[in-house]
From TrEMBL, chain A:
<dbReference type="InterPro" id="IPR043428">
    <property type="entry name" value="LivM-like"/>
</dbReference>
<feature type="transmembrane region" description="Helical">
    <location>
        <begin position="285"/>
        <end position="308"/>
    </location>
</feature>
<feature type="transmembrane region" description="Helical">
    <location>
        <begin position="122"/>
        <end position="139"/>
    </location>
</feature>
<dbReference type="GO" id="GO:0005886">
    <property type="term" value="C:plasma membrane"/>
</dbReference>
<dbReference type="InterPro" id="IPR001851">
    <property type="entry name" value="ABC_transp_permease"/>
</dbReference>
<keyword id="KW-0812">Transmembrane</keyword>
<feature type="transmembrane region" description="Helical">
    <location>
        <begin position="51"/>
        <end position="76"/>
    </location>
</feature>
<dbReference type="Pfam" id="PF02653">
    <property type="entry name" value="BPD_transp_2"/>
</dbReference>
<feature type="transmembrane region" description="Helical">
    <location>
        <begin position="169"/>
        <end position="190"/>
    </location>
</feature>
UniProtKB/TrEMBL annotation, chain B:
<keyword id="KW-1133">Transmembrane helix</keyword>
<feature type="transmembrane region" description="Helical">
    <location>
        <begin position="265"/>
        <end position="285"/>
    </location>
</feature>
<protein>
    <submittedName>
        <fullName>Branched-chain amino acid ABC transporter permease</fullName>
    </submittedName>
</protein>
<feature type="transmembrane region" description="Helical">
    <location>
        <begin position="12"/>
        <end position="35"/>
    </location>
</feature>
<dbReference type="InterPro" id="IPR001851">
    <property type="entry name" value="ABC_transp_permease"/>
</dbReference>
<keyword id="KW-1003">Cell membrane</keyword>
<keyword id="KW-0812">Transmembrane</keyword>
<dbReference type="InterPro" id="IPR052157">
    <property type="entry name" value="BCAA_transport_permease"/>
</dbReference>
<keyword id="KW-0472">Membrane</keyword>
Length: 324, 295
């Protein structure tokens, strides 16, 4: 089961460290993000960064691991719940709350991943979706999740117990550090020897097996890593909105992250970030149209699959003949 | 009257009946998925949306055209089936040369569109659909009360399921279908119009979903979200049964409905997740599914 794409990082890019083009893009992006909270509403910008990290984490699995999960909301949402609970009930500081949410997602990813990789292709997608629905039902019924209400008014607290994050701007730079750091770590994973083995497995699984790679172990590792970073995104999101709710674990959230990655360009480094930016901005401006947002997302899905499988960044990468 | 583990028999049988009804829907829907998967190799994510559409078409026929339940039972699946054929011709058929996951993504998008549109025009509160007069009321069996309509749902789904099984496993058309599943190129070389076969198969599978929707309309209120959550459970059913066998997907559907009903008696909190737990166990013990072929 391979999803072909054009924007795959080539081995040469790996040998020379981060290519200049990518360095420039990351620096420009960072500079842009530093001034962004002074241009737009900081909470919107933080939401954008959380979803960019979420989509990048998902892309690690789909674009670089070749595995389509339809249940990533489970990791995003459970981390969101655990982080909110940790900050509100246990009174942990923000960085520890985010860390506990991330660890919870990693553990859940390990368990679900171990079961899901026993099936392939379409079944894999269905299995992950079904387990995510199970997590949803647990979140609906469990005591600590607050059912329909979710966990509300989560305290933002003080970073390391010292720096108050109550102010939007100081929280913004915390979120920027976490998400940007997360995205750079994902970049490093993709361009590591581990990432190259993933590439080999995606292109030709039987051959990777014959070369002596324990394919299932690699799949489980990439699944767990993807779940971990999705959890990091979800836990950070809980701090931003001071809320963990059923929306975070619902299957529509799983669908949204697939859409972001597909639209931006799966298997590209920057595609998921662009896709997340487009979708979050669209939701923001179309919020008044209610259910039409769902219809428009569906239409984008259909157009994306029918005509635009490389995604925005994939197309640009083809034009400039460089992996992005 | 006997008692089983402290559970009054009325409650037990009542829940078993409810389970059997849920199982009927699981069976008809997973059968449709299996039929489509067999020939097209795609998982139809829009199946839940088309099931919902079947219920809505029945409601519209009644409220806009005055057409009652019995004609709707034939008409609504036909309309949904034709709608499915249009989707197949316009969109799905252009993706067959790609990875099957694109079919999944496309049908997911279609499901969002269909659900979103109905939600826009009809809200999410749900619309009532009256049980037809002939099936109103029920039988008093002495030990429990059996609503006529619920009995009808079980009978109708059994007839449709086994009719489909018979058509696929025992008729000439079914033989073409099974052959095309194994090797579409060779079957085409024998002069069978395979693209036509694929189109009709998709239409038929989707019509099954529409039929289930009409059956469901009087039981559950007709609402745009009725298919979304159901289809995920049906996916789990399909993973448990494996899609290799028509009979397998039918039996798994009824069986899991009954298990769910039993769970509701003995451990109500677990009833929403029991099917997913069984899926996890099946993945551990027999990953290819109870009736699946190892791949």
């Amino acid at each position: 089961m391979t999803i072909s794409n054009s924007g795959i990082a080539t081995p040469s890019a790996q040998r020379a460290g981060m290519p200049l083009l990518h360095k420039v893009i990351f620096l420009v992006l960072l500079a842009f993000l530093v001034v962004l909270p002074f241009l737009v509403y900081p909470v919107f910008a933080m939401k954008l960064m959380c979803f960019a990290l979420f989509a990048a984490a998902f892309n690690l699995l789909l674009g670089f691991g070749g595995l389509l999960s339809f249940g990533h909301a489970a990791f995003f949402g459970s981390a969101s719940y655990v982080a909110a609970h940790a900050a509100k009930v246990w009174g942990l500081t923000p960085e520890l709350a985010v860390l506990s949410g991330t660890v919870a997602a990693a553990f859940l990813g390990l368990v679900i991943g171990a079961l899901a990789i026993r099936r392939q292709g379409i079944y894999f997608a269905m299995v992950t979706l079904a387990f995510a629905q199970m997590v949803y039902f647990v979140a609906l019924q469990a005591q600590f999740t607050g059912g329909e209400d979710g966990i509300q008014s989560v305290p933002r607290g003080a970073l390391f117990g010292l720096i108050s994050l109550r102010d939007n701007i100081s929280l913004y730079f915390f979120v920027l550090a976490v998400t940007f750091g997360g995205i750079l770590m994902l970049y490093r994973i993709v361009h590591s020897p581990f990432g190259q083995v993933l590439h080999a497995i995606r292109e030709n699984e039987p051959r990777a097996i014959s070369l002596g790679y324990n394919v299932n172990r690699y799949k489980l590792m990439v699944f767990t890593l993807s779940a971990t970073f999705s959890g990091l995104a979800g836990a950070t999101k809980a701090q931003v909105f001071q809320l963990a709710s059923l929306t975070d674990v619902h299957w529509t959230m799983s669908g949204e992250v697939v859409l972001m990655t597909l639209l931006g360009g799966m298997g590209t480094v920057f595609g998921p970030l662009v896709g997340a930016a487009i979708i979050v901005t669209m939701q923001n401006y179309l919020a008044t149209f209610g259910a039409w947002v769902t219809v428009i997302q569906g239409v984008i899905f259909v157009i994306g699959v029918m005509l635009f499988r490389e995604g925005v960044v994939g197309v640009i990468a083809r034009w400039i003949k460089r992996p992005l | 009257m006997f008692e089983l583990l402290g559970i009054p028999p009325q409650a037990l049988l009542g829940q078993l009946l409810l389970g059997l009804i849920n199982g009927s829907f699981y069976a008809v829907l997973s059968l449709g998925l299996a039929v489509i998967f067999g020939l097209l190799n795609i998982i139809n994510f829009a199946h839940g949306a088309l099931y919902m559409m079947g219920a809505f078409v029945a409601w519209m026929l009644l409220n806009y055209a005055g057409i009652g339940y019995w004609p709707a039972l034939i008409l609504a699946p036909l309309i949904v089936g034709v709608f499915g054929i249009v989707l197949e011709r316009l969109l799905l058929s252009r993706l067959y040369h790609l990875d099957h996951l694109y079919g999944l993504l496309l049908t997911f998008g279609l499901a969002l569109i269909i659900q979103g549109l109905f939600r826009n025009y009809y809200g999410i509160s749900g619309l009532p659909y009256r049980i037809p007069d002939a099936l109103a009321g029920g039988y008093n069996l002495g030990f429990m009360f059996l609503p006529k309509y619920r009995a009808w749902v079980v009978v109708a789904s059994l007839v449709v399921c086994f009719g489909t099984w018979f058509m696929i496993e025992k008729t000439r058309l079914g033989a073409y279908l099974r052959a095309a599943t194994e090797n579409p190129v060779l079957v085409g070389a024998f002069g069978v119009n395979v693209p036509l076969l694929i189109m009709l198969t998709y239409g038929f599978g989707v019509a099954l979903a529409g039929f289930a929707g009409v059956l469901a309309a009087p039981i559950y209120s007709v609402n745009p979200n009725m298919g979304a959550d159901l289809i995920i459970v049906v996916f789990a059913v399909v993973v448990i049964g494996g899609m290799g066998s028509i009979m397998g997907s039918i039996l798994t559907g009824y069986f899991l409905g009954l298990i769910e009903g039993l769970t509701r008696v003995f451990y109500p909190e677990g009833s929403a997740v029991v099917i997913f737990v069984i899926m996890a166990l099946v993945l551990l013990v027999k990953p290819e599914g109870l009736f699946g072929r190892a791949t």
